[in-house]
Specification:
Chains A, B, C: One of its GO terms (molecular function) is delta(3)-delta(2)-enoyl-CoA isomerase activity. 3 copies of one chain form a homotrimer. Chain A is α/β, with parallel strands linked by helices. The first copy, chain A, is built from 10 helices and 13 strands. Chains in contact: A-B, A-C, B-C.
C-alpha cells in the first residue's frame, strides 16, 4: 500500500530488519548496498523464491517451505527482507504472493515459536509477525494473494495484508483467523484488518468462534475477492494485476494511505508527527 | 461478553445494583452472601424465571411479565439481579433469554416510565436500561436471544446485547429500533450496537425512519442471525450454545473484549485507567 | 440532515457565503433580508431552478447547466445559496435534487477550476466543494437525489450527501468516485461518506481503482438505494419523500445527527465546544 505509510514505518517499527539496514542514496533503507540492480530481485532461498518480470514490473513471490509454509521467525525474516528489496526497486510495481506447495498457501504462525520460549524470543517473534503485516499493508506496490491452498490463521493474515485476494475454487481449502479455536487471541490489528474486510458482525462471529471458511463461504462473506479454478489462480492474479497497474500509481497509493490511516493510527499511537504531516501534505498537494 | 469489560463496569456504572452489593470472597460483587450455590440460580419471580442446567452450564432466563414483557424499572432491576447472580456462578457459562408469552419477546421500554415522571426518576430508569445493556454486552457468558415473538425498541436492544440471535420464522413477528416513529431518539449506544450488527447504512435508514423489520427482512439485513420454526427457537438456541461452549472460554472472551472496546470507549469516556491496563495486559499476556 | 450539525457549521466553515450573510430575526444566517417569504424559494437562474410546493413542503432543485452540470465555483456558490434559502424557510421540510439535462445528473467538479489556477483560487474552489457537502449532509431537511443520468466523481459526492438515492434503471448510466482514474485523490471526507454508505472493503476497491458502477452494480453494493424506470425517478422520489416526512422531524433529525457525528468529528477537529454541548444536550433532553 501507500508510500507515506511505508516511509513512516521507519519511525515506529524498526523490527527485525533494523540491524541490517543502512541508508541508501535515496534516503531510504536498503538491506545491502552491494546488490546489483539486475539480479537483486530474482532470488532463491530454501524458503522463498522471487521472480521479477522487468517487462511488466510484477514480481511473483513463491513460498516453498515444506511441509506447510509455517511462519517461523526465520521464514518471516526472509519474507520481510525480500519484500523490502522489492519495495526499494523502482521497476517493481506489483507483487503476487503464492505457494509452491500442494494444497496449502500457508498454515500460519509456527506454533513452536510460542511454546517454551523466553519472553524475549516471543517478543522478537511477534515483532516479526507485525513487521510482515506492516510491510505488506504499507507497501507501495499493488499486492495480491494468489491463494492456491488452505490458509488458516497467520496465512489468512498475510492474505488480508494484500490489496486483493484470489483463491482456488476448491471447497476443501479453507481460510480464516481461527486462532480462538487454539486458545490463542488474535491481536488488535488482526481484528482491525478483518473488520475492514468483512465488516464488524462477520468479524465478530469469525473471531469469537475461531471460524475457518471453505473457499465458497469465504467468497460469500468477502474474505476473498474472487474464486477461480485451481490451475488459474496465478494467471488470474497476473491478469488482474495488469488492470490495477493501469491506474495512476500516485493517486491509488494515496487513496490506500487515506483509507488505511484509521488502522494505522490505532497501531502507532502516538503517531510520529512527521507522518501526520506527510499525509496532510500529500492530500493537500494533490487536492490543491 | 468479556471478563475485563464486566469487571470494569464496576468503576463507571454503579447503577441500580450498587446499593445491594457487597464484595464476595472472590473480590467480585455479590448481590447477597447468603445464597447457597445449589439453589441461587434457579429462581422464580413474578416477572422472570431462571433455570440453570448444571450439567450443561447453560441457564434459560424466561421473561414472564404479561401482557408484553415491558421493560419497567422493576422489571429491569430484577433482570439485572438475575444476570449478576448467573455471572457470579462459575458453573454457568451460557445464557439463553426467551419469553413465556405468546407472540411477544419484549415490547421494549415501558413508556409510562418516561411520562409525567420527575427528572430524577427518569434518570434512574435510563440508568437501569443502560445497566441491562452493559451487563448483557459485557457478560463473560455466551449470551443468546431466543426471540419467539415480536421485539421492538428496547426488546431489540436487549437482543443486540447478546452474542447471537435466533428468531421465530414468522413474518408477522417484527423487530427493530423503531423509537424514532414514537418521537423518541435512540441514544448513542443503541446506535453503536446497531451499526456494529447491520453496518452503517442499514442502521442509518433504520434509525432515521424508525423501521420495524419482519423476521425474514431482519435476517436479510443481519439484524438476527438465524430463523427457525417457532417451536424450535429454544431447542436451536440450546444446540447452538453447545457449539459456542466448545470454544476455549478465555480466548473467546478476550476476542469479544477486543471487538467491543471501541463501543466501550465511546460509552465510558474517560475510560477507567485500570480497564485500559487490564485489556492491554490480557492481550499482551496471551500474545506473548 | 440534522439541525445541530447545520448550526454548528457557522463556527468552523464560514465558506463562500459568509460575506453575504447577516443574522435574521430567528438568529439564523440569512442570505438577504429583503426576500419575501412567498417568492424567495421559487427561483430561476441560468444554472439552477428551484420549485417549492408549499402544500407538501417539498422543494425540487433542478440543475440546468449544460452540457453536463459541471460543478464550477459559480455553480457551487449558486447551489449553496439556494440550499441555504430553503434551509431558512420553515415551510420547506424536504428537498429533491435532480437534473434537467438528458443522460447526466452531474459530471462532477469542473476540472478547469483546478488547472493553471493560483493556490488561492484553488483553495476557494475546494472550500465551495466542502461547503456544498456540509450543507447537504448537515441539512435539517430530508434530502433525496433523483439521479436521472450519469453521476461520476463530484456528482456522486453530491448524491452521497443526501439521505436517499433513487437512480434511473439504465445500465448505461454510471456513478462512482472515480477521481483516482484521473490521477486525483478523493479527500478524506469523500472517503468517509463512501465508507459509511457501502462499507469499508467496497469503498477501498472503489477508491483505489477509481471505479464507476453501472446503475445495477451501484444498487448491488448499496451506492444507490433504489432503481426505477427513467421516467419515474422524480415521481418515485416524491412518493418516498412523503413517507419520510411522516416520521416526526425532531427525532429523525437528531438520529441523523447522532449517526453523522463520527464523520463530523474527523472533519472539524477540534470540534467547536458549543457543538459538542449542543449534541449532548439534544440527546440528553430527549432521552431524559
Amino acid at each position: 500500500m501507500a508510500n507515506v505509510l511505508r516511509n513512516s514505518a521507519k519511525f515506529g517499527f524498526s523490527g527485525v530488519l533494523s540491524q541490517l539496514s543502512i541508508h541508501s542514496r535515496h534516503g531510504r533503507e536498503c538491506v545491502s548496498p552491494c546488490f546489483s540492480l539486475q539480479q537483486r530481485n530474482n532470488s532463491t532461498s530454501p524458503k522463498i523464491k522471487v521472480d521479477l518480470d522487468s517487462s511488466t514490473g510484477v514480481a511473483v513471490l513463491r513460498m516453498q517451505s515444506p511441509p506447510v509454509n509455517s511462519l517461523s521467525l526465520d521464514f518471516l525474516t526472509e519474507f520481510c527482507i525480500n519484500l523490502e528489496k522489492l519495495e526499494m526497486d523502482r521497476s517493481c510495481r506489483g507483487l503476487i504472493i503464492t505457494s509452491t506447495l500442494s494444497k496449502v498457501f500457508s498454515a500460519g504462525l509456527d506454533i513452536m515459536e510460542m511454546y517454551g520460549k523466553s519472553p524475549e524470543r516471543c517478543g522478537e517473534f511477534w515483532k516479526a509477525v507485525q513487521e510482515m503485516w506492516l510491510k505488506l499493508y504499507g507497501s507501495n506496490m499493488v499486492t495480491m494473494a494468489a491463494i492456491n491452498g488452505s490458509s488458516p490463521a497467520g496465512g489468512c493474515l498475510m492474505s488480508l495484508g494484500c490489496d486483493y485476494r484470489i483463491m482456488a475454487d476448491n471447497p476443501r481449502y479453507s481460510i480464516g483467523l481461527n486462532e480462538t479455536q487454539l486458545g490463542i487471541v488474535a491481536p488488535f490489528w488482526f481484528k482491525d484488518t478483518l473488520v475492514n474486510t468483512v465488516g464488524n458482525r462477520a468479524a465478530e462471529l469469525s473471531l469469537e468462534l475461531g471460524l475457518l471458511y471453505s473457499a465458497p463461504d469465504a467468497l460469500k462473506i468477502g474474505l476473498v475477492d474472487q474464486l477461480v479454478p485451481e490451475d488459474q489462480v496465478l494467471s488470474t492474479a497476473q491478469d488482474t494485476m495488469s488492470k490495477w497497474l493501469a491506474v495512476p500509481d500516485h493517486a491509488r497509493q494515496i487513496d490506500q494511505c487515506v483509507i488505511s490511516v484509521c488502522i494505522y493510527y490505532i497501531n502507532t499511537s502516538p503517531l510520529p508527527p512527521d507522518h501526520a504531516r506527510q499525509i496532510d501534505q500529500c492530500v493537500i498537494s494533490v487536492c490543491i
